[in-house]
Write a structure and sequence with these properties.
The protein has 217 residues and is of the alpha/beta class. The radius of gyration is 18 Å and the shape is globular.
């Protein structure tokens, strides 16, 4: 390494990442996102969208619920409809989440919804099922607003489940095919299933899976 080279931000320690994020922050109002998170608290997150194109599609619903210790705090949840600015929900997406253009007419502008979400999350670690997609969609709004993508650490429930399944297998069968479908995951963990593709329901189910997987790890 050359004298003035530095490792990628992802490899920095938490304190240095907090310093860097606050330094790049456009709006000082959001400095709380880099505070120390409350102990044993997380936020489970899910988004519904107009489609699956990360560059062109838009968010139409956001669901989030807090987790405290081994409890899913369903009384501390956030449920927002979002009015897409440019792209209508595709027919395929409407069949999945049942949100039509007229259903979203009174939805919030994306930036207003994201502001509410950021206050709800605070510095807590995010939890979700295929969370990478939801975070990528949110970051299209968050990046211009903050000057930085979402700073919270992220935990992928399907990866936790994959590790759990592999721990049950004999060594010679590990890392083979694992069915990571949400219904399979929930059924195998013997957890109640809500109607899928509703943002809050999906967030609650991911939270239940996270709590169970932590308990049996």
């Amino acid at each position: 390494m050359q004298p003035f080279d530095r490792p990628p931000v992802a490899q920095w320690g938490p304190a240095l990442r907090r310093w860097w994020g606050r330094r790049r922050l456009k709006d000082p109002h959001f400095r709380f996102l880099w505070d120390t998170a409350p102990p044993d608290e997380w936020v489970s997150l899910d988004c519904e969208t107009t489609g699956l194109d990360r560059q062109r599609d838009e968010i139409v619903a956001i669901g989030a619920v807090r987790i405290r210790g081994n409890r899913v705090m369903t009384s501390e949840r956030l449920e927002l409809l979002v009015q897409p600015a440019l792209r209508k929900p595709s027919a395929d997406s409407v069949r999945i989440h049942q949100l039509r253009e007229q259903d979203l007419a009174q939805g919030l502008p994306a930036e207003d919804a994201v502001r509410q979400l950021l206050h709800f999350i605070g510095p807590r670690t995010l939890v979700g099922y295929y969370l990478e997609f939801d975070v990528a969609m949110l970051n299209r709004v968050v990046q211009p607003l903050l000057g930085t993508p979402l700073p919270q650490p992220q935990i992928e429930v399907s990866a936790m489940y994959y590790d759990h399944v592999n721990r049950q297998r004999p060594p010679e069968q590990r890392h083979g095919y694992t069915d990571l479908r949400f219904a399979t995951l929930m059924g195998d963990l013997e957890l109640p299933q809500r109607p899928a593709h509703d943002a809050v329901s999906d967030a609650v189910m991911a939270a239940l899976a996270f709590v169970k997987l932590r308990a049996i790890a």
